[in-house]
Design goal:
single chain, 80 residues, alpha+beta, 3-stranded antiparallel sheet, 38% helix, globular
């Protein structure tokens, strides 16, 4: 059994696609271990996207991901 982190981005949250996205995971027999809706801070985003630091688009990613709430999921399943 494996686990993975999923972040449903601001655009999908704004367009009310969260339920449809979750349905796809559930239809594929993945279990949602954790689900949380948050407004990510710059500090958390800088840590999460640390591998992008120094790239021209780094600040754009941070700005976009902090522009609205995101939904954070931890999924569990085979080959997840």
């Amino acid at each position: 059994m494996e686990r993975t982190l999923v972040i449903i981005k601001p655009e999908a949250v704004k367009k009310k696609l969260v339920g449809k996205i979750i349905s796809i995971y559930e239809d594929n027999r993945l279990e949602i271990i954790h689900a949380h809706r948050i407004l990510a801070t710059q500090e958390v985003l800088e840590q999460h996207y640390a591998d992008l630091k120094g790239k021209d688009f780094f600040q754009e990613v941070l700005d976009y991901m902090s522009s609205s709430e995101v939904v954070v999921l931890v999924l569990e399943g085979e080959n997840v």
